[in-house]
Amino acid sequence: MGNRLTQIATRTGDNGTTGLGDNTRVSKDSLRVHAMGDVDELNSHIGLLLCEPMPEGVRSLLVEIQHQLFNLGGELSIPGYELLKPEAVLALDVALAEHNEHLPRLQEFILPAGTRAASQAHVCRTVARRAERAVVALEAQETLKDTPRQYLNRLSDLMFVLARVLNRYRTDGTVGDDVYWKSERLAQADGSA
Questions:
Q1: 113 CA to centre of own chain
Q2: Region (Disordered) spans which residues (predicted)?
Q3: Nearest Cα to 34, choosing from 104, 135, 152?
Q4: Which end of the chain is more exposed for a tag (fewer CB within 10 A), N or C?
Q5: Measured distance CA(36)–CA(142) in Å, rounded
Q6: At what angle do helices 86-100 and 56-77 cross, to 10 degrees?
């Protein structure tokens, strides 16, 4: 495959439009462009997360997710085209089951906090939810395949689970934990209220 980018500053977007993969031009404020931008932002946040220490299996999974998000962005940029396959959703289901199996059962809500890696995974989770909402909004106006919506929904769940995994990961051999919300209900159950 040849080099697809010949120049970055084309100035063709100076009028508030952008080109899609099918050579049509749309407003930069269109629902499709919002969805593409949210997916791109999510991929960038995952790239930032990959700068942190983590188990090698989680790292490999996140790199694969970045490739799939690039496929998703490509699919969104070419109306009617399919790049993200249903198998990608199944791969997230497998990863969810695998990582969830080793985590303790939640007793209460957790805060998006803990280690820097876990906190960044929570940022990825929230951006995935926003990207999912953008795809749903686009889907209300245009016909899309189910896979993009399903992938983002499952990915946000996985990022929650990976945040919990990353809160436990320590390079010194110790094990960390989640940061639990201090709710009145939990305090009453513990008898500390």
A1: 17
A2: 1-22
A3: 135
A4: N
A5: 14
A6: 150
**Residue for token pair 């929904």:** 153
Interval 36-74: pLDDT, tens: 999 999 999 999 999 999 999 999 999 999 999 999 999
CA-CA distance, 107 to 183, in Å (whole number)? 11
Q: What is the pLDDT of residue 1?
A: 41
Look at residues 189, 167, 186 and name the one whose alpha carbon lies nearest to residue 178.
167
User: By the 8 A CB rule, do 43 and 70 touch?
Assistant: yes
Residues 6+ apart with CB under 8 A from 48: 120
Angle value at C-alpha 62, between 51 and 181, nearest 5 degrees: 80
Distance CA 128, CA 152 (A): 6
Q: How many CA atoms lie within 13 A of 4 on its CB side?
A: 2
Q: How far apart are CA 63 and CA 76, in angstroms?
A: 20
- Phi then psi dihedrals of residue 61, to 5 deg: -60, -45
Amino acid occupying residue 109: F
- Model confidence at 17, pLDDT cuts 50, 70, 90, reads low
Q: Output the six-digit token pair for 138.
A: 């686009």
Torsion on CA atoms 81, 1, 65, 82, rounded to nearest 10: 10
By three-state DSSP, how is residue 151 classified? helix
